[in-house]
Fold:
Amino acid sequence: MSVKKKVGKVSSPKTQQEQCQLFNCVCHDFGRRILWTLFGILIAYCVVLLGTMIRNNLQEYYFIGQADKMERVITVDGVGEVTAKPDVAMTTMGMVAEGVTVLEAQQQNTSVMNELIFRLKGLEIAEDDIQTANYNIYPRYDYNDDDGRTLEGYEVRQNVSVKIRDLEIANEVLALAGEVGANNVSGLQFTIDDDEVYKTEAREKALEQVSEKARALSRSLGVRLVSIVSYDEYTGGQDPYPYKSYAESAYGLGGSMPDVEAGSMDVVMNVHVTFEIR
Structure:
């Protein structure tokens, strides 16, 4: 009795190789799809992140310097004024000299200005209070149709600024213009040499006014003053009182001058205070 062996079908080597190649292709394609998917997700994330950063930066730019919330504030103004007597007078005195040559004009100018400075010191005006303001030399020309422009000579201008601390001698200082031949004198101006004391007093008055106004507004508006947000101040009303100019009348009067009155002047302090309210 013959025995038949059942033998299964065996794949050929060629068929196994094709299956392996197919499997590798499928795995490679699947891995590539995953990588592209991850890369796409990364790109999308970067775009979103970049957009968020730009938006945040723009918001910070628009709100730079602004408070986190709108403050409730009121601003109160106050003015303090103090009347003071000037203690210093300022004037400018000088000489305009003409000559055919520069040397001639300089000699005339120097002679008058040296005498003027000597006489000023004789009135006990300190050297620090006498300062040369300018020294200029200009040519003088004559114009006519025949010759056109011709040089006639030169002009020398020199001025000194004088600070007069003793107002009792202010008229004597101005009288020197006529006595020594100075022909160029500016107006006399009165001022306060050190006005910090008056500024402090005016500031205190202004702040008292602010305090009274702020309390009244607080009661009227039904709010509470929490703190001071800002403070600002500036001075006003301190321009020196101008006196009459003697540029023309001082020359040749032989020192005859009217009495000088300093009068008074106001030192004004303006303050602005901003309060936070609740």
User: Anything to note?
Assistant: The radius of gyration is 46 Å. The helical segments are 13-62, 102-122, 170-180, 196-221. Strands lie at 73-84, 88-99, 130-144, 148-164, 184-185, 187-191, 225-236, 241-245, 265-277. Residues 86-193+240-263 form a domain with the Alpha-Beta Plaits fold (CATH 3.30.70.2970).
